[in-house]
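<goal> How does this chain fold?
<body> The protein record starts here
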Amino acid sequence: MQVSLAEGDGQAFGVAMPIIAFFSVAPTDASVFDKVVTVTVNGVPAHGAWYWERSSQPEDALEAHYRLPAYWPAHATIHVNMPIAGLWAGRGLVFANNLTLTMRTGAAQIVKINGKPGVDKMYVYQDGVHIRTFKISLGAAKTPTYLGTAVVISKANPQLMVSSPGDAFYSIKVPWSVRVTYDGEFLHDAYWNGQLGQANLSHGCTNMSPADAEWYYKWSQIGDPVSWTNTGSTQVLPVWDGYGDWNLPWVIYAKGGLLPPTV
C-alpha cells in the first residue's frame, strides 16, 4: 500500500496540527508501524500516539493522525522518520514506501471563544499573551456551533457558501473565511450581521466584523487551535470532522482508534 503525508517538508504550522498519514489500502495491523516510525521534537524523542480513522480523502482508505498529549511547543522543529517499505501491515499487506518529514511550528496562536449571549467574545493569544478581543456571533438555536476544539484547516478569500438541502436557499461568496471543519464551519466576515457581541444568529459559523475577519485571516496559521464554550449545543466536534483530535481525552486517543497499537 502507498503511504503519503498531508504536510510537506519545511512547512510551518500551528501548534495543534496533527501529523497526518494517508494509506491507499487500510492496514489491519499497526504493530510494526508503531515500532519503527519515530517522531522527534527539537531532536528529542516525542511521546505521542497515532490515532487511526477513516480517510477524509476519497482516494485513500484510512488515515492516521499523530499528536502529543498537549500541543506541540511553539517555534519547534518536528522530524518524522517512516522506514516502513516492505514491512508487515496485516495479513497479505505490506507498506510500499519509506517517508520522512521535517516541519516547523510557528507561534502558539490560540483562540478561545465564549458564545454566551450578551458576551459573544473571541479572545486571541500569541505565545501566551492576550493580544486581541473581538465581538462575534455564533450559531442560532436551530443551528448551534460545535463545542470543543477545532483546528484551522484552510483559508479562502472569498469562500463560496451554499445552503444545505432543506434550508432556506442561499449562495454567497464570503470574504476572509477560515475553515475549521470539513462539514462547513468557518470563522468569517459577516458584514450582514448587525448583532455581533449580542446574539447568536449564524448557521453554525463564527461571524466577525469585516475588519476583524480580515485581521484574523491574515494572522492565522493552518494548524492553529480554536476552542468554543457556551455555544448553546451539547455536541462536541467529532474527531473525524476536520482535525478534531483534541476533543478525545488522551487515554482514549492513545488507544489508537480503528487500529489499536501493540500493548
Summary: DSSP finds three helices and 20 strands in the chain. Residues 3-106+246-253 form a domain with the Immunoglobulin-like fold (CATH 2.60.40.3710). Residues 210-219 form the longest helix (10 residues).
